[in-house]
Every structure is written in structure tokens, then in C-alpha cells.
Amino acid sequence: MTVHIITGTNTDVGKTIATAALAVRLHTTGRAVTVVKPAQTGEPEGQGDLTTVRRLVGETVTTVEFARYPEPLAPNLSARRAGLRQLDLVETAAKIRDLDAPGRTVLVEGAGGLLVRIADDWTIADLAADLAAPVTVVTSLGLGSLNSAALTVEAARRRGIGVTGLIGGCLPPDPDLATRLNLRELPEVTGVPLLGCIPQGAGNLDPEKFARVAEHLDAEPFSR
Ligand SMILES: Nc1ncnc2c1ncn2[C@@H]1O[C@H](COP(=O)(O)OP(=O)(O)OP(=O)(O)O)[C@@H](O)[C@H]1O
Ligand SMILES: [Mg+2]
Q1: 37 is catalytic
Q2: Catalytic position from the list 4, 25, 37, 54
């Protein structure tokens, strides 16, 4: 099965941009890609992470969203407050398994970080465990990032979840001292490789330029 879970050290670290970059890289190697956002919160109709992915990648990517809740909160809280049905873990895992096919990679973007509740009784870590799918951790790069990346990787491993590696979600053109050092320290403290970094501003590029930026990302582990 080629399903990969894209999680992050926090919300807003660049999971969506990193997911789009992986999709572009995989397309150039001839793979079909489906991006799944199980639960999208806080976005009006016609907007959201999958819209961003399609804008950056182009229409070659297939996107699937299972639930949408109005307020920008953890999905379970947003669902509860709106009186909307929460996603069921078994059902969600089954739907994702159905999307899996030879020659295709399914990238599943969580909401926020690893232990954010998608529904009251499950997190994206539970989904990864159920699917036996590895996680990739999109991380911030500045001061404080070593701790949050290490915590996330450790929490995944404690649950028996494989960790493919880290992706720096937003690398500034003129990184400060902590960021420069972290590029080397992140693999040391987490024990997993840094697969690449997304340059700051990449989220605003057109698909052609975005594809060039994505070339620096090691997407090879996502073909398996
Ligand atoms: N490399 C980048 N270049 C430009 N903008 C970026 C970059 N990384 C992140 N951003 C911006 O930061 C914000 C958060 O990025 P993104 O949506 O990818 O984060 P996320 O981790 O997917 O957040 P969420 O938990 O809401 O899904 C967005 O407005 C995005 O445009
Ligand atoms: Mg996102």
C-alpha cells in the first residue's frame, strides 16, 4: 500500500505546501497522486488546503475531502460546535484504502499536529496506525523546532508508526543562526532524515515555478 500521512509539528508549518511539492515530484516520476484531507476546518466553500494543492500542482492531482467544519479549530471541536457528524476511524481508513492503487501514491494531510483530534475518539496518529502508513513530519525550522520535531517523531514511534522523514515547511532566504544550525541538528535529534525544505514564498508561485522549487525534495520514499 502506498499511503503516506503528512503531519506537522504544529498548524501553519507548511503541511499543505509540502504535500503539494511531494505531489509535483511524484508526478514528474510518473506516479499518479491523490491528496486526501479527511477534515478541513475554517474555510469557506471553494477554499481550503485541497484548493491550494490544485493551484500549486495543476489539475493532474486528484483531491478528496471527507468532512468540512466551519470554525478554524481542531476538527472534533469544530464539528461539535456546529452540531455536525464526526468522522469514523474505520470508515475513513476504509475509504483511504479504496483510493490506493498500483502506480498511485495517496498523501493524507492531517489537521494541525500528530495528536490533534480529527474526531473525539481518534487522531491522525490512530489513522496512520490503522493503515500501517508511515508519517512524514513537516516542521518549522527556527528556534524551538528541534523540540517539537523530536516530540512528534517520538510520539509516532511510540505508537509503532514509521517515520519517513522531516520536511522543512518554510525556509527563509536569509535564515537566522538557529535555523541554519537546525538544518543539521534536526536529523541528529530526531533520528530521521530531512528530506528537503520548501523555500519561503513557494506557496505563491505558479505551477511551473513551483515544480522547479520542488525539485530539491527527496520524494523517492513516497513511491514505495
Ligand atoms: N514555503 C512557503 N511559502 C509561502 N507561504 C508559505 C510557505 N509555507 C507556508 N506558507 C503559508 O503559511 C500558511 C500556512 O501554510 P500551510 O497551509 O501549508 O500550513 P499547514 O501546516 O498546512 O496548516 P494547517 O494545519 O492549517 O493545514 C499559508 O498561508 C501558506 O501560504
Ligand atoms: Mg494545511
Answers
A1: yes
A2: 37
Ligand 1 atom 31: the closest Cα is on which residue?
203
Atom of ligand 1 minimally distant from the CA of 17: 18
Instruction: List, as one string, the DSSP characters of 118-135.
Output: EETTEEHHHHHHHHT--E
What is the Cα–Cα distance from 118 to 195, expressed in whole angstroms? Answer: 26
Lookup: cell for 123: 487522531
* CATH number assigned to the domain with residue range 3-217, chosen from the 4 options 3.40.50.300, 3.40.190.10, 3.30.70.20, 3.40.50.80: 3.40.50.300
The pLDDT tens digits of the residues spanning 101-146 come to 999 999 999 999 999 999 999 999 999 999 999 999 999 999 999 9
Q: Which three cell numbers stand for residue 102?
A: 498500483
Tell me how far the alpha carbon of residue 8 lies from the centroid of ligand 2, in angstroms: 9
Amino acid identity of residue 157, one-letter, is R
Among residues 162, 101, 171, which one has the least CA distance to residue 135? 162
- For the chain, the distance separating the N- and C-terminal CA atoms, rounded to the nearest angstrom, is 8
Strand extents, DSSP E, 157-212? 163-171, 194-199
Q: Are 149 and 190 in contact (CB under 8 A)?
A: yes
Q: Report d(CA 39, CA 70) in Å as an integer.
A: 11
- Say which residue the cell 520535531 belongs to: 149
For the segment 149-173, what is each residue's pLDDT rounded down to a tens digit? 999 999 999 999 999 999 999 999 9
All structural domains of the chain with their residue ranges: 3-217
Q: Is 170 annotated as a binding residue?
A: yes
